[in-house]
Amino acid sequence: MLSPAAARDRAVSLIEQARKQGADAADAVYVGERSQGVSVRLGALEDVHRSEGEEIGLRVFVGKRSATIASSDLSPDALAALVERSLAMAGEAPEDQYAGLAPEELLFRGNPIDLDLDDGGDPDPAELKQRALAAEDAARSIDGVTNSNGSSASASASIFAIATSAGFSGATRATGYSNSASVVAGEAGAMQRDYAWHSARHCDDLEAPNEIGTRAGERAVARLAPVSIKAGPMPVLFDPRVATTLLGHFVAAISAAAIARQSSFLLDALETQLFAPGVTIHDDPFRQRGLRSRAFDGEGLPVKPMDLVSDGVLTTWLAESASARQLGIEPTGHAVRGVSGAPGAGPSNLYFQSGKRSREEMIADIKHGILVTELIGQGVNGVTGDYSRGAAGFLISNGEIGPAVGEITIASNLKQMFAILEPANDLRFRRGVDSPTLLVPQMTVASG
């Protein structure tokens, strides 16, 4: 794996070769990663892996024709062949009037902000094994846990570099650590399983293994002896670990590509009251040690913190350059990409801001409802917003959380859900996409 400076130089060199051989414009992306991990089950080692790889992708433009090719062979001969093939493919590609690099006048200039994404660590397998064992031991120590699906611990380091013929080049390095446990509670036909995990950029920020394991065990035991419920309309609380899926549906619907294709249920929602007043959805690329933090986007454009929804009003689409041209707007600095294909659009560290009421206050006001802790299957129509998913969780009765419920279906329409949902005040930053508990005051809930 190259250093950030060497990765950036390699991308710049590849672009120069492409320009010399006839490309009107080009960009190149380098991705290198080193990862290692350990898995255990029932106190015994199951798997140890370590890998290191690198790839570089070249996108060339000949007029309005373009092609992208990637290679894991970075030798001079292989890169020369990569340039030759990409130009040949571009010559045969159909014209795309919206294709092209990000506008030169909008490119990021200056020195990237230090986001503290790299702690320089490279733990040995013995350390990872002890972390995995400790998480599993804690989970198995919970009364009622009867088996284990295993526990794992991993560490990684990655380099991302991009260069464009319009004059931008940049590179970043980041580390990552994770720890997880999954266990089974109960016996025979009454078994239930659950899990817990945590990821962080710095090893020092990773939760203690015993905390992760204890949470996994307690979650599995709490799901024992599920009860049936009476179907009908009722309030639904989305636990934070599943509430983030609503943000995923939201992001897909405000992608400029979806808007340009007219395949989004939010097609006419820009600058309208999409959520209730007071609801804010914020995107923060500059969070220190954030899992999705970045100093520039996948096209070399500057990024900035911004409210995608402010006081309930949808403020923007998420647009990379090609979709922005289709819509007649400027790109928003949300381009994301790998080494293959054209850039797409996506957020950085995205979250619902906390609301005013606590989760406990919300529960206290519910006479009959559901707390959802797991979602199963798909069942979301991105064109109409119709929403129907299998779920599991807990019954809420007379203001208290009761027994577990399973094999239920929750249904509504995302636009209707967005209009009435309420965030609780229990937001914690644990992922790249975060949410507090979300209350949707009415959904249709059915058994089986």
Topology:
Layout: H1 4-20, E1 25-41, E2 44-62, E3 65-71, H2 76-92, H3 125-140, E4 145-164, E5 169-185, E6 192-200, H4 209-222, E7 232-238, H5 240-253, H6 256-261, E8 281-283, E9 306-310, E10 313-314, H7 321-327, E11 335-336, E12 344-345, E13 350-352, H8 359-364, E14 368-376, E15 386-397, E16 400-413, H9 414-420, E17 422-423, E18 433-434, E19 438-447
Parallel strand pairs: 7-14, 13-18
Antiparallel strand pairs: 1-2, 1-4, 2-3, 4-5, 5-6, 7-19, 8-9, 8-13, 9-10, 11-12, 14-15, 15-16, 16-19, 17-19
Q: Can you describe what's shown?
A:
The chain has a six-stranded antiparallel beta sheet. It has a five-stranded mixed β-barrel with strand order 7-14-15-16-19. The chain is α+β, with helices and mostly antiparallel strands and 448 residues long. α3 runs parallel beside α4. 23% of the residues lie in helices and 36% in strands. The protein is globular and about 70 Å long. The chain has two domains: 218 residues, PmbA/TldD fold (2-Layer Sandwich); 223 residues, no CATH class. It has nine helices and 19 strands. A hairpin with a 6-residue loop joins β5 and β6. The N and C termini lie far apart (50 Å). Belongs to the peptidase U62 family. InterPro entries: Metalloprtase-TldD/E_C, Metalloprtase-TldD/E_cen_dom, Metalloprtase-TldD/E_N, PmbA, TldD/PmbA_N, TldD/PmbA_sf. It holds the Pfam family PmbA_TldD_3rd.
